[in-house]
Write the structure tokens for this entry.
Amino acid sequence: MAPIIIIVDDSAAERARYDALLSAAGFTVESFDGAAHALARIRDALEPLIIITDWVMPNISGLQFVAMLRALDFDISPYIMMLTGRSEKVSIVSALNRGADDYLPKTVSDAEVVARTRVAERAIRRHEAQAQKIDRLQEIIRRFDIRYRIVDERDGDCGSLRGLEAGSVAAVLRSATSVLKAVHAEPPAQLPDSPASNDIAEPSDLAFWSWTGVGIPEDNSWLDIRLSVSREVALALHSAMVQTDPTSQMDLCDLLAETTNLIQGALKSELQRAGVRLISPHLPSCFEFESSRPPPIPSDTVHHRYEVSSDVGSLFLDIFETRADVQDLLFAELRSGQVLPETLYSADGQVVLLRAGTVLDARFIARLKEQVGGADCQVSVFAMSPMSVDMVATEHGTGALETAIQRATL
């Protein structure tokens, strides 16, 4: 998310100068004539902020304003630049000690203002990246805890998930594997042109759904796996499988996502035993039907639905198969969101550059160009399904594929 520039100065002329200058440089700028008005906007801000404030202002001075900002709780701490006519060293030290990140004399040139604002923007980007990594690590820790709680300690297989009937889960996996083997035995051109589903109807009371995407490069296919459950069943399953009551919606989502992860792993094992290699670049994610509906099913997708029984109700497992051709592309043709079907090695075969299942983004593509060299070199890739592309965008927002590095297997 692009940062917003907040200018706070009691001088209309100064506000107009910096507003025009930074707007022309491509920033989104909002101006305020005093700290009180600015605080009302800043408290409600969802965007990261770069705040440029004057020192000498009526009612609330710049130093007081900085101290008030540092006392607020932000997901991403704002970058604060103090703008003033004071140039003595003691003033600079005082501003920085109070919490300002940078200090600009009012005699500063326009070019330097823009350059220093770019520095602030880069700092904000770094903070965002670190926050995302921390969130991801916390999610992984929660999920490992959930996995430990829900797998029967006597057997780590998916068929022994607490609260689910082992026979039912195993039967689903055997059925899914046999169906996929039958579909794979057909020439790709013979795939149905319209969705094919069994006769299990989707209940109207489903509240949560989780998703993951996996690829089968040898068969030029991509599988989207979705697990859906009602709120009542989710609550009961949490009590049965985790053996505690959930404290939030996140607990229920973590349970369903990790259950999907284990089912995905078991399906992967089943397919490998059947001689089919499956790569899984995504960590399963969970959503609420109320706030985020599943993406539409493309017309050329093969759809299989299964009902997984438990003592407290049913979970519904949907597997969507989409054609995904493996292609050999030049570096100039590589795009974010494409997936490596094979591990990529250096020219001498000694160094692993990127592992199979890596989702390409701009950084990975640049790394390949640098380490492999030569615009004429080709790389084998295949594309995620339209559903998977929609899912990545839904979970991470616009431009998510550029940050899919978090999903890659390094």
The domain at 151-323 is CATH 3.40.1550.10 (Chemotaxis protein chec). The longest strand covers residues 206-216. Residues 186-197, 396-410 have pLDDT under 50 and may be disordered.
